[in-house]
Amino acid sequence: MERLARWVPGITVVRTYEKSWFRKDFVAALVLTALLVPQGMAYAELAGLPAVTGLYTTVAALLGYAIFGPSRIMVLGPDSSLAPVIAAIIAPLVIGDSPAEAVALAGMLAILAGLIEILVGVAKLGTVTDLLSMPVRIGYLNGIALLVLVSQLPKLFGFSTDGDDFISDIVEFVKGVVAGETVAPSLLLGMGAIVVMLVGRRFAPRVPWVLVAVIASIAVVAILGLADEGVSVVGTLPSGFPSPTFPSVPMDDLGPLLAGALAIAIVSVADTAALSRSFSAKRGERVDQNHEAVGLGAANVAAGLFQGFPMSASSSRTVVAESVGSKTQLTGVLSAMAIIVLLVGANSLLADLPSSVLAAVVIVASFGLFDLATVRWLA
Fold first, then answer.
1. Chain center to CA of 339
2. What confidence category does residue 378 fall into, taking pLDDT thresholds of 50, 70 and 90?
3. Which residues contact 228 (CB under 8 A, 6 or more apart)?
4. Averaged confidence pLDDT in the chain
5. Could you write out the three-class secondary structure of the chain?
6. Which letter, b or e, does each residue of 75-95 get, where b requires 16 or more Cβ atoms within 10 Å of its Cβ?
7. What pLDDT is recorded for position 216?
8. Residues 310 and 110 sit within 8 Å (Cβ to Cβ)
9. pLDDT of 140 above 60
């Protein structure tokens, strides 16, 4: 039993859980859910997938990691730095405009990345990621941040473009603005959300400003009927939660997916290990990085089986969970249950959420990826 508990830490949490922890885990789950829902949907769209798949990914990641993840505070889910990478991997493989095919490819990508991550942990290679040099990681994150920012500008302004790389994205965005395609109410809602999140976070960092911006924008759209005035909204989400299904993809696509999965696994394991070490040291705990890789891999496999996509650890959401007193992985389990309730019983609750506000959430998240201070130090 003890040997099993080493690789399935959720068993130890259940056996040692104290009743006094529940209140803190419950409150942390409520606050965390408010952040997980809009971010999950936003990052799904950034990956070129239906918004609801971000919620499927979030639920699977939280539950998978709660069982197999060793850190009691870590929060996993869709990631802003991985989303554009996912889009770049699956976009060339999708024939025409087929969301179902894109979802299947993303699911297989998550499963392959997860299996690689599990292999890394079982083979005790988790510490190898320490060898990934700082300049490479900083350059990668800054580059991703710039790509994310540019890719979201058209959505923030209320229109769409056909750019397929960084330069064409900029060109198409400028053409759209010059041609007068900007939808003023969408831009105002998006810019307002950015101001609320940035200013609010500065003066009251414990308040879930993402939730405040989302609720306010939904209320404005509903009251003023802006969806009928050209403002793009999320719309009613599919009702229910999917059953586990192994994604079906053409054999010819497995090669490109495997190559992409390897790159995603390396980055995800490295980022998760660094975040895990930081928080475990802060809490006076010790987390085995090989077990961390297995937990990450299990979460990714679960996401792939439930129409999700590759994900990783989240520093911002982990910080939120810790700041409001989360004690164990039960916080993630309760958050996952709350999202399932949303999908099953209140799937129209976010129907009036403006797409420009989702873009604002991603843009604000991209600011956190820039590390210009380290770049100047390295220079």
1. 14
2. very low
3. none
4. 84
5. CHHHHHHCCHHHHHHHCCHHHHHHHHHHHHHHHHHHHHHHHHHHHHCCCCCHHHHHHHHHHHHHHHHHCCCCCCCEECCCCCHHHHHHHHHHHCCCCCHHHHHHHHHHHHHHHHHHHHHHHHCCCHHHHHHCCHHHHHHHHHHHHHHHHHHHHHHHCCCCCCCCCHHHHHHHHHHHHHCCCCCHHHHHHHHHHHHHHHHHHHHCCCCCHHHHHHHHHHHHHHHHCHHHHCCCECCCCCCCCCCCCCCCCCHHHHHHHHHHHHHHHHHHHHHHHHHHHHHHHHCCCCCCHHHHHHHHHHHHHHHHHCCCCCCEECHHHHHHHHHCCCCCCHHHHHHHHHHHHHHHHCCCCCCCCEHHHHHHHHHHHHHCCCCHHHHHHHC
6. bbbbbbbbbbbbbebbeebbe
7. 94
8. yes
9. no
User: Taking the model in full, what pTM does it have?
Assistant: 0.77
Instruction: Let me know: does 232 contact 355? Beta carbons within 8 Å.
Output: yes
* 111-136: pLDDT as tens digits: 999 999 999 988 887 666 555 545 55
CA separation for the pair 235, 53 (Å, rounded): 14
How far apart are the C-alpha atoms of 344 and 335, rounded to whole Å?
A: 14
Burial class, 137, CB count within 10 angstroms (exposed 0-12 / middle 13-18 / buried 19+) = middle
Tokens representing residue 334 in the block: 């309760």
Q: 246 is written with which tokens?
A: 């192994």
Please provide the distance, in angstroms rounded to a whole number, between the alpha carbons at the two ends of the chain. Answer: 52
Dist CA 229 CA 109 (whole Å): 38
In one-letter notation, the amino acid at residue 15 is R
Q: How many CB atoms lie within 10 A of CB 379?
A: 6
